[in-house]
Amino acid sequence: MTAVHRGLVSRLTRRTLVRADGCGWSIRRLLLAVAAAASLGGLIGAATVAPANAQSFTYNPLPPRPKPPRVANDNQMLVQATEVDYDYNNSRVSAVGNVQLFYNGTSVEADRVIYDQKTKRLHAEGNIRMTDADGKITYAEILDLSDDYRDGFVDSLRVDTADQTRMAASRADRSSGNYTVFENGVYTACAPCKDDPKKPPLWQVKGARIIHDQQEKMLYFETAQLEFFGVPLAYMPYFSTPDPTVKRKSGFLIPGYISGTDNTGYGVEVPYYWAIAPDMDATFTPRFLSRQGVLLQGEFRQRLLDGAYQIRAYGINQLDPGAFAGQPGDRDFRGAIDTKGQFALNDKWVWGWDGVLMSDYYFFSDYRLYQYRDPLGSFLLLPTEALSQLYLTGVGNRSFFDARTMYWLSYSGNQSQVPIVYPVIDYSNVLNYPVFGGEFSYKTNFVNLSRDEAVFDPITTVANTSSLCTTASADPLARTPSQCLLRGFPGTYTRLTAEAQWRKSFTDPLGQIWTPFASLRADAINSSVSNQPGVSNYLPVGDTQAFRLMPTVGLEYRYPFINIQPWGSTTIEPIAQIIIRPNETYAGKLPNEDAQSMVFDTSNLFSVDKFSGYDRVEGGGRANVGVQSTTQFDQGGAVKVLFGQSYQLFGLNSYAVQDTINTGLDSGLDKPRSDYVASASYSPNSTYTFSVRSRMDEQTWNVQRFEAEGRANFNRWSVSMLYGNYAAQPELGYLTRREGILTTGSLKIATNWVVSGSARWDLEANKLNQYVVGAGYVDDCFVLAANYVTSYSYSAGTAPPVLSHAFMFQIGLRTLANSSTTSSSSGLQ
Predict the structure, then answer these.
(1) pLDDT digits (tens, 9 = 90+) for 762-775
(2) What is the greatest pairwise CA distance in the chain?
(3) CA 817 to chain centre
(4) Among positive and negative, which fits the CA dihedral 189, 195, 197, 202?
(5) Could you tell me which residues are beta bridge partners of residue 706?
(6) Predicted confidence (pLDDT) at residue 327 exceeds the cutoff of 90
(7) How far is Cα 578 from Cα 558, in angstroms, rounded to an integer?
(8) pLDDT at 453
(9) DSSP at 760
């Protein structure tokens, strides 16, 4: 030692235990000052600092965190070093050689640590590593800080934050305990390449200076440039962004470009985000349009203890209303409000709402304000209506309750033909104890709705049929069930349905499974039908009260036969079902609002009531028979086949009764012996799935409905194809056979790149009537996606199909920006 008298040096080797008070005061100050170096780790939030090239990022896996030795209590510190030197003359303390300091869960490692008591500066050098109680690790080669860590500098550093953002700089200077200036700084949220650490990240922002204001929690970039794969793409003299510790920060967001229409013109959006409070925020998004002026948009959101809600508002005072001449948009002011919210009453009950109001029904579509699906999804579809509703839902262990009112706002202008559902209430419960040894359940449904104007659809190609069905002044005698369907009646409809069900299964000594069942359903109906032209040809006009009672008893029989072979097992199971009940009362004489869809296949072959809703109820005696085969292979895979038929045994066949929309006609069930239905599925492994579904005429075996589907999912790609062939159903308005193919596919062409697409081919018209092409790149730091959709929409009558196009582009830089652009157009073909 040169400047220090050996008599003044106390050399402690290997391990020294010192109290935080008393004679260990200098070591305590040393430790606290070293701990102050953690402030560099907090330059941009919870961070770790490591030496690095200021202009690049390298892969540097963290070594395992050392476990500190056990100490007597939290007020003691442990110092381990090859030697600890006290220089009393210069008021300097040095720990040299494999230095390790432990205090209150924090450990510091370095080759050398020096604390100058006069200048109150801490100097550490050589393989510095500090680990705090939360696991934050700080690396450096040279640290020079004041003991209150308000001022100091670090040469050649890299900062890795807890949320995987990274910053590097040739030098960092800290002042006032708040500001840190990174010279020649680089910022990115992308991880370095493991295979090639010197390779530039996917994107990074370089700045001559990057200033971090810890109080404001902001990063300011001066003379910045945005690089992709090391290639500069954009230059910005100045921009700012919240630091990575900030989840919500007021400020301007990335502008968006709007590819408008001839009526609105092109434009840009400049969003501004306002973080009002920890529980609420708002976003203001003025859209500047070249033809119509400024469209103001605003969204307010608030989260409460038991839920959250949001309100969005739109408004514009159009500069050129004449651009919408002859359309609902030909007015000065146009706007809309939509809102939604949901709140929990407790762990079983929630209530909420959705609401939409518009100045005119074309507003959303004219200004392209409708919502698309996720840009990486398969389809981008334009909704045709918006739902406003208020609801209350409760879910128990074996019960369910839902009550809601619903109002659909039509985007097509046919508001008078859309019903208002004042309430619809559903309740179901399964008792958790046996009744007569079996399972007992019950359910109820109540609905009350109204509609102002009748909804007719043509079902023939007779000239002017479409006009006769839809024009109020047309000859009402022309509106007959043979030419038109009454999709929705004008008036008010109220129905209360209650049903109780019981069933029990038991197996006899031969292995036969017997399942008797019984149910009792009651419907109380009040119908008030307006006497509009043609409606009386379908329904009795005026007030009608009806009470409908449907008792049902039945028995289901199954007898499984199992064959076990070295390669697997096969189970063949004949199934028979007998159902006894009276005829459906008021069949076809009451409104049908919720049982309009009717597809007969193996999925509902053994359903006691095959109608999809409550407004129709199946009556008469019926037998459903079939055989099911399931084969399981020991090496994996399974084959399942089901074939069957349904028989009307006695009474009125509900599916042969004509109602306002002919539900059940041309379904295959509208005759004493139904069509045959069959299905088969084969899954050799988790990669492939094949299935077919078919309905064949019971006399000629001609195919009435056929679907074949195949799916394959591999590590990098997946495909699916659905082929459909459907016979004409003239009673429902389908006068010719329909045939088509729907294909979808996606391919992972690289680690993060996915290309997807789908196409629908109308084989009868020999035309692609919809196709979607999309591509996207997604990783932890970057999103790039684009979709293009072309589709035809068909309307009744002789009107030509409308061809529509939609395009969406999205780009996102994690922690910095997210922007999207949409455009769409349509025209007659």
Answers:
(1) 888 888 777 788 78
(2) 123
(3) 21
(4) negative
(5) 694, 725
(6) no
(7) 12
(8) 92
(9) E
pTM for the model stands at 0.74
Q: Running DSSP on this structure, what letter comes out for residue 613? A: S
Separation of alpha carbons 169 and 183, rounded Å: 6
The three state secondary structure string of 298-353 is: EEEEEEECCEEEEEEEEEEECCCHHHHCCCCCCCCEEEEEEEEEEEECCCCEEEEE
Q: pLDDT band for position 740 (50/70/90)? A: very high
Q: What is the mean pLDDT of residues 321-331?
A: 88
Residue 668: closest CA among 718, 639, 702: 702
Confidence of residue 158 (pLDDT cuts 50, 70, 90): low
Residues 6+ apart with CB under 8 A from 227: 200, 203, 204, 205, 206, 233
Question: In Å, what is the CA distance from 17 to each residue of 32, 477, 820?
Answer: 15, 105, 60
Q: What is the C-alpha separation between 45 and 815, in angstroms, rounded?
A: 13
d(CA 774, CA 823): 15
Report yes or no: 710 and 742 within 8 Å, Cβ to Cβ. Answer: no
End-to-end CA distance of the chain: 95
Measured distance CA(443)–CA(764) in Å, rounded? 44
Q: Take residue 219 and report the two structure tokens written for it.
A: 């990063």
Tell me the C-alpha distance between 78 and 74, whole Å. 10
Query: In the structure encoding, which two tokens stand for residue 505, read together?
Result: 């299964």
Mean pLDDT within 286-315:
94
pLDDT at 717 over 60: yes
Identify which has the larger pLDDT, 790 or 464: 790
What's the CA gap between 776 and 787, in Å, rounded? 9
Dist CA 225 CA 167 (whole Å)? 15
State whether residue 26 is helix, strand or coil.
helix
What does 168-203 look like in DSSP terms, one character per residue? EEEEEEEETTTEEEEEEEEEESSPPPSS-TTSPPSE
How far apart are the C-alpha atoms of 783 and 227, rounded to whole Å? 15
Decide if 33 contacts 122 (C-beta within 8 A). yes
Q: Strands, DSSP E only, in 202-326? A: 203-213, 218-228, 231-242, 251-252, 256-258, 267-269, 272-277, 280-284, 287-289, 293-304, 307-317
608 vs 384: which has the higher pLDDT: 608
pLDDT in tens, 437-461: 999 999 999 999 999 999 888 886 5
